[in-house]
Amino acid sequence: EAQVTQNPRYLITVTGKKLTVTCSQNMNHEYMSWYRQDPGLGLRQIYYSMNVEVTDKGDVPEGYKVSRKEKRNFPLILESPSPNQTSLYFCASRSGFRVYNSPLHFGNGTRLTVT
Amino acid sequence: TQLLEQSPQFLSIQEGENLTVYCNSSSVFSSLQWYRQEPGEGPVLLVTVVTGGEVKKLKRLTFQFGDARKDSSLHITAAQPGDTGLYLCAGAPTQGGSEKLVFGKGTKLTVNP
Block means of pLDDT (10 residues each) for chain B, length 113 residues? Predict the structure, then answer.
């Protein structure tokens, strides 16, 4: 089954404790992206990657890191999480660079709470 | 930054009613997508509209892209409880590269049986 898999689904951590949220897709998509979803703010892009070893900042990159060493994986790293990073996170991928002919496929989300 | 404003933010209706959700901007978009997100899941694409004035139908859902490609609407006929969810519009700005997708904040629809 074609899918984007995120882990974990739920994560509660403390301020300053490094964490990684994994994302893997099995559709051979070049483009991958991370979003956070917050009430009243909608979906905001954190980082995206057009291909292996190519990453770029989205609208809210502060406090996050990503890497794209393999085509299928795009982990999101929080080196020193803070409470304002409490959010619902989504990984997404699509096959092409052009939005109009390639829909975004989303994972089921990771709900992160930082205390 | 190109913004997409969705209205209404919340909508609660009875089964069988019709409804329209709006997605508006002052900017032109090269294409626009509608997604539906159900609780505990990621958004799922419903439709992509590309041409100004384009109308697409998906069963009881009708999507329209404005003539000037600045706005879009989603009309649901005879809503059912299974239509409950968060509806998101997302546009590809004409500036900034075609890989960029801007999301509206969503319309949360509840259809009561």
Answer: 89 98 93 94 95 96 96 97 96 71 94 97
C-beta atoms surrounding B39 within 10 Å = 7
Q: Per-10-residue mean pLDDT for chain A, 115 residues long?
A: 94 97 96 94 94 93 97 97 98 83 92 97
Report the C-alpha gap between A40 and A108 in whole angstroms: 20
- In sign, the C-alpha dihedral spanning A27, A32, A36, A42 is negative
Residues of chain A in contact with residue B2, where contact means CB-CB under 8 angstroms, are none
| Cβ partners under 8 Å of residue B105, min gap 6 | A40, A41, A42, B5, B6, B9
DSSP state of A39: T
Report cis status (omega within 30 of 0) of the bond before B43: no
Tokens standing for residue B35: 């997604």
- Residue B54 is encoded by which pair of tokens? 């384009």
- State the Cα–Cα distance between residues A95 and A102, nearest whole angstrom: 6
Displacement of CA A65 from its chain's centroid (Å):
10
- Measured torsion, CA atoms of residues A22, A27, A30, A33, in degrees rounded to the nearest 10: -40
Nearest by CB: B50 against A31, A42, A100 = A100
| Residue A64 CB burial class (10 angstroms; 0-12, 13-18, ≥19) | buried
Chain B residues closer than 8 Å to A41 by CB: 105
- Residue A63 has which token pair? 């406090």
CA distance, residue B15 to nearest chain A CA (Å): 26
